[in-house]
Design a protein that fits this description.
Elements: H1 2-20, H2 34-38, E1 67-77, H3 79-87, H4 94-97, H5 101-107, E2 111-117, E3 122-126, E4 129-144, E5 151-170, E6 174-189, E7 193-194, H6 195-203, E8 208-229, E9 232-241, E10 244-253, H7 254-259, E11 264-270, E12 273-283, E13 291-299, H8 302-312, H9 316-319, E14 323-331, E15 335-342, E16 345-354, E17 357-367, E18 376-387
Antiparallel strand pairs: 1-2, 1-3, 1-18, 2-4, 3-4, 4-5, 5-6, 5-7, 6-8, 8-9, 8-10, 9-12, 10-11, 12-13, 13-14, 14-15, 15-16, 16-17, 17-18
Length: 388
């Protein structure tokens, strides 16, 4: 046990000089999943199912974690986006609508989001061993008021990965696990600009995008521990060890992006992420009606929270970005109902289990800005997965 703790400590110490020398960081990744968001993202101490591979590899050896997954199609979208498409006739009338002051006023309140994950998603979890392939992509946009036409701020990211992990049990209470993974990440640097300028750039027909797309890949590791004390579970994980280095290429030329005729231009890092959590597995409250009750709380990116406190001082409004709460229970033997708080915003969701097919739904809000309440984006997620 002492050797394991010492090894993790050494890994963290040697990862710190890497961060001190870097200038570009990529945000930690959250796989798009109805269960993750419906449960408020609090899975570090409750890493069941394939979603646990993104939070704590120690969970692979749990008795309930023996699965084969094929397809985990998650599609998320924003109600504002559907409203905007309808009002502008599929964006065809955008220029005309921007002359309407009422429409511009509505536009400033919109937060647009769309994305998908799980095609492909292939996973095998058995006897503590995990092998998985995944992908996930999302786009978010927010409008910012100016004197005339509003500016637009857009962020886009996509990630695909291959993960091999193993977990084992020590004694009666402790689970230890680790992942090795390769990650391919694509993201776009889209500067804040006038909405009309962005529209004109797309319609110019010059074969160039009005922003730069970057792509690269890197290798990394995850490590985690899970302590089971009766109904109480305590989880701890260190992700993206030792800070995943991404040597990327970039271009704004459509033909170069399609053909892949790019040269290396820079380096970015996905930083180490330290998560901690607790969960209570309360079992059955009311037979058939309320079974498998679970409550959980997580702190994500503890190391990044400490850095924020160091830079901005102890600010309670920062804490909301790092705390996550979840609750779920099964009813009627086939329906799991969820709720929680994701970055301080309420979430709800459910999963309908139909033999090997699972249909899930979640509604959640995430924060695009630095502080809670700055740029909240609310989305619906619908999931169809095949696993057994």
């Amino acid at each position: 046990m002492k050797k394991i703790i010492f090894t993790i400590f050494i890994i963290l110490i040697f990862s710190l000089p890497i961060f001190a020398q870097t200038t570009e960081f990529l945000t930690p990744f959250t796989y798009i999943s109805a269960r993750i968001y419906g449960f408020g993202g609090a899975l570090t101490a409750n890493p069941t199912g394939f979603e646990g591979l993104f939070f704590n590899p120690a969970g692979y050896a749990l008795p309930s974690n023996n699965h084969f997954g094929l397809i985990d199609l998650n599609v998320y979208f924003n109600p504002d986006l559907l409203n905007l498409i309808q009002q502008t006739n599929g964006f065809q009338n955008m220029d005309t609508m921007l002359t309407d002051s009422n429409f511009v006023s509505q536009l400033l309140k919109m937060k647009l989001g769309i994305g998908l994950s799980g095609l492909p998603f292939i996973g095998i979890m058995s006897g503590g061993l995990l092998i998985a392939l995944y992908d996930s992509a999302g786009l978010s946009a927010a409008f910012i008021p100016t004197v005339a036409i509003p500016d637009v701020k857009i962020s886009a990211v996509a990630e695909a990965g291959a993960v091999v992990g193993y977990s084992f049990k020590i004694g009666n209470f402790l689970y230890i696990g680790a992942n090795a993974k390769i990650i391919a990440r694509a993201w776009a640097d889209i500067p804040q600009q006038s909405l009309t300028s962005l529209i004109d750039s797309f319609s110019s027909g010059e074969g160039n995008l009005p922003f730069t797309v970057k792509f690269g890949y890197g290798f990394g590791f995850d490590a985690g521990a899970l302590l089971k004390l009766g109904s109480l579970q305590i989880g701890f994980s260190v992700l993206n060890i030792p800070g995943i280095k991404i040597d990327y290429v970039e271009s704004n030329k459509i033909d170069e992006l399609i053909n892949g005729s790019l040269t290396s231009t820079g380096t970015a890092y996905i930083p180490v992420q330290i998560n901690a959590g607790v969960a209570l597995n309360l079992g059955t409250f009311i037979p058939v009606i309320m079974d498998k009750v679970v409550l959980a709380m997580d702190i994500h990116s503890v190391n990044l929270l400490i850095e924020d406190f160091s830079e901005y001082g102890f600010n309670m409004s920062l804490i909301g970005n790092y705390f996550y709460f979840g609750a779920e229970f099964r009813t009627l033997g086939i329906l799991t109902i969820r709720g929680g708080l994701y970055q301080g915003y309420p979430t709800v969701g459910f999963t309908l289990n139909l033999l090997i097919a699972k249909l899930s739904f979640a509604y959640y809000t995430k924060e695009l800005g630095m502080f809670p309440g700055t740029l909240p984006e609310s989305n619906f997620i619908v999931t169809l997965s095949l696993s057994w």
